[in-house]
Amino acid sequence: MMQLENNKLTALESDSVGKVFVRYLVPSVVGMFMMSINVVIDGIFVGQRLGEVALAGVNVAFPVFSIYFAISLWVGIGGAALYSRSLGAKDAEQARSIFTHSLTLIFSLTLALAGIAYLFREKLAVFLGANNETMPYAMEFMTVLLSFGFVVTVQNAFSIFVRNDANPNLAMISLLVTAVCNIGLNYVLLFVLDFGVAGSAWALIGASAIGACVLFTHFLRKDSTLRFVKLRLSWKLAKSTFTIGFPSFVAELGIAVFTAGYNMAMVRWAGTLGVSAFSILNYVHSVVLMLFIGMGSGIQPLISYYRGAKQHARERETIRIAVKTSIGIGLGVFLIGLLTADGIVSLFGSFTREVQELAASGIRLFFVGYLFMGVNFVMMTYFQSTDQVKMATWITVAREMLIMVALLFTLPHVMGTTGIWLAIPLSELIVVLTVYAYIRRHSRTAASVNAAS
Description:
This protein has about 450 residues and is mostly helical. It has one domain. It contains 16 helices and no strands. It has helices at about 1-15, 15-50, 50-60, 65-90, 90-120, 120-125, 135-150, 150-165, 170-190, 195-215, 235-310, 310-345, 355-365, 370-385, 390-415, 415-450. Helix 4 (about 65-90) packs antiparallel against helix 5 (about 90-120), helix 11 packs across helix 13 (about 355-365) and helix 14 crosses helix 16.
């Protein structure tokens, strides 16, 4: 068994960094892309079957999904980073203990928070931007997610650990299966059985359950290090897990803040039409966002493993390749949005001319932010995986909370809805500049220490 594990991990240290990077990046990005397709499919089916107000209602309830995803990332990424470090240090027993501990934390947290949110779901919907028109749809979607959304959390947590156990392809296959099942279930539940908005939520839950079953096959592999062992609760381990994973939690929580902030701003400055236009962009944004999250998920196992194995040169080379790749992807997505905005909006249904024009204009402006967003995600993952948690947390808090919220409060007074669309691009740019300044200062400090010694 140990020989199989050693063979599995040897490639991380012997193959070229570029080859290993691609081996992990492609399945991770494809898998996260397919996960985002689940959300977009929900939007397309709801928009085509039930119209723009129902679509806006689902968008209001969408942060509930973000909260589930945030918990799985918080504990999952934190635990997986420690897991991969243990693999790098060739300590399989410690790795398994970390895995068991992390899954217990995730399941417990999910059930506790879902129960609390369910009790206050109406107030939660109002806080997230629901009005008299969108409230029935938001409540319908939210009730299903709060009751059974833990399935989504379990699937994502297993996906993270399977990827860190040198099986990124199975993690990708699981998400591919989930996306295909979601398409089929959405069609049946909305168009055949006429379950309404709740049908879309049930399709998401059912597809996630099937995807989780695919991931469970990893435990049948002879070269799998992942095993459940006797649980040993440890506050020290929990603290390390929560600390390392905290930036990922804040990043996902920031999506909820982003969605709520934009909904509130649009309600104030453009009414329900503005919320409908933003809901279209938000579905598209979820796809691109998952691409960048996929990049982070792809490099996290590598950086964590190299840190545990003390292979710092390979660690630095990995992050250099990742930054260049993120810039290329961001540029490509920006050009696509610039050239095909009207076609993207049309995918979600036939809307009034005002909604169509507002959404297309928003896409062209908002997509400027993707030139910087990928770099921020890559650097956040790097800082997080190398114990520079404060800087990783700054990136996540600043992007979609501090700076973005400040811009949403100020720019619309000067630029109207254009200011709302530009809040994220300007926020991402400002954060990139702070990251650059931090790296420059850190490099000068390191050089001074080396010169003095």
